[in-house]
Design goal:
Blueprint: E1 2-6, H1 10-20, E2 26-30, H2 42-53, E3 61-70, E4 77-78, H3 81-87, H4 89-96, E5 104-114, E6 119-130, E7 146-148, H5 160-166, H6 168-189
Parallel strand pairs: 1-2, 1-3
Antiparallel strand pairs: 3-4, 3-5, 5-6, 6-7
Bound molecules: inosinic acid.
């Protein structure tokens, strides 16, 4: 079954392929970029993007919106993660946390999936801590400064497969996959096929 993934980020596509490819889903990257809106939650951003893309995108499609939330900064950069990454980078976050002992943070991912009729949302979250220095050369964004719970390595020190086992995106994809599987089995049972 073909799934169109609306993103300009190849790293996200690789993570999705690793998880959904072996289950028979063919991930097709579409470089359709919805405008970045200002909103209070990732859910609002993802829903806006899915509605915006509706007339243009091949179905079924999904897109994902994610953010990096640092507890000591009251959740900043959160929904502004992309903008803050472009302007301050992860070094800016490390500077804001200079001298701060409490270094808990989380990544959250929201997937909006459009099957041609309705939009469904799936969530994934990973808790962890912010390092004092950047570590590792893999991945993207804030990967070099985030260690997920249950590991001693940053996301940037992991390969895609290992990161996918911990990551917010991996969890949101897993939730979507579970739902798709139910839909798939139901469709097969009714003899409709995809
Ligand atoms: P977006 O969902 O692509 O807009 O992501 C928002 C920002 O969060 C991006 O600029 C990334 O820097 C950051 N981000 C999202 N997911 C990850 C991740 O898995 N690792 C590191 N940074 C991420």
């Amino acid at each position: 079954m073909k799934l169109h993934f609306l993103t300009g980020n190849k790293n996200k596509v690789i993570e999705a392929e690793k998880r959904l490819g072996p289950l028979g889903f063919d991930i097709i990257q579409e470089n359709l970029q919805p405008p970045e809106i200002q909103a209070d939650t990732l859910e609002e951003v993802a829903l806006f993007s899915a509605k915006w893309a509706e007339p243009y995108a091949k179905k079924p499609f999904f897109l994902e919106d994610s953010g990096f939330f640092v507890d000591s900064l009251n959740g900043f950069p959160g929904v502004y993660s992309a903008y803050v990454f472009r302007t301050l980078g992860y070094m800016g976050i490390l500077r804001l946390l200079e001298g701060v002992e409490k270094r808990c943070a989380r990544f959250v991912a929201i997937i909006a999936y459009h099957d041609g009729e309705v939009i469904r949302m799936f969530r994934g979250e990973v808790l962890g801590t912010v390092t004092r220095e950047p570590r590792g050369g893999n991945g993207f964004g804030y990967d070099p400064i985030f260690i997920p719970e249950g590991s001693s390595r940053t996301f940037a020190e992991m390969d895609t497969e290992e990161k996918g086992r911990f990551s917010h995106r991996g969890k949101a994809l897993e939730n979507m996959e579970r739902w798709l599987k139910i839909g798939y089995e139901e469709t097969e049972r009714k003899g409709l096929g995809f």
